[in-house]
Amino acid sequence: MPEFTAVPQLRPATAAQPNRVAEIAAWLAAAQDSQQAKPLQRPRAIVFLSNPAIATHTTDDELTQHSPADEERWRENIFSAAQRAGAGIDFVECTSAESTSPEPGATSAAMTPAEFESFIDVGMATADREIDSGSDLLIASARGIDDATVAASLMGRITHTEPVAIVGTNTLASGITDAQWKTRVSIVRDCMFRARNLEGWEVVQTIGIPSVAALVGFIAQATARRTPVLIDGPLAATAAVLAERSAPGVKGWLRAGSTTPEPAYALALKELGIEPLLDLNLSEGFPLGALAALPLVQLAAELA
């Protein structure tokens, strides 16, 4: 099983901050080990992409919502947002030639222990590469057909939350129909049932996907190397919870980009003790929320 470097504890602010901008500046200054926050020189957004061939929680309705044209528009939007925010961006494919797609209710794991550790290593190596290249803030997010469902399944299992509660009942905010909601609840219920007698990393191996393993490694390694991280989206938030549980101290280095209508995301942030910087209520398109929040972080540093 993966072993992470101990995460340094971020020094607390010396006093309560008068407003949110000041709080961001104090957090950034602590991450920079400085008395005063300094503007970021090389923020970078990393998007971990799921392998569609092993989308273990996907419904036909979800597949039709992610056409090649949609993916092209998403990439154009992300590149535009990154450029406007003054951030670089990279996409990391999380693929596996060996994994297969177990049907809901199956007993086989989504990842073997060796595959799981290899994706952890992918995330850690990505963090090392970015930090060695001079990145002083990283954005962690993911893009995949089934990310929200995977996040709901994992957070539901590790926090013992009922499937209906972890999926939520606001179908309008989530952008899905009642029929899609019922299917999603069934999938989450089946995934949680498959992992009912498992603990620790076995849960992630059984009902997770490679991108969540990569995100855990990425977040744990970035924070171990004293680099602040903005997380964006349910899967990144779930990975942050898993990283914090394995390497206590991670959460001090984190902030979240924006709100989403996903209960799993809100539950993850509650466990981490952090609040989103913006209230955009995004249901997809991550890391748009964190990229939108990045100018606020820069402004806080400049005003400090």
UniProtKB/TrEMBL annotation:
A matching Pfam family: DBI_PRT
InterPro entries in UniProt: Nict_dMeBzImd_PRibTrfase, Nict_dMeBzImd_PRibTrfase_sf
GO molecular function per UniProt: nicotinate-nucleotide-dimethylbenzimidazole phosphoribosyltransferase activity
UniProt KW Cytoplasm keyword: no
Keywords: Glycosyltransferase, Transferase
EC number: 2.4.2.21
NAD keyword on record: no
Protein name, as recorded: Nicotinate-nucleotide--dimethylbenzimidazole phosphoribosyltransferase
Organism of origin: Corynebacterium hesseae
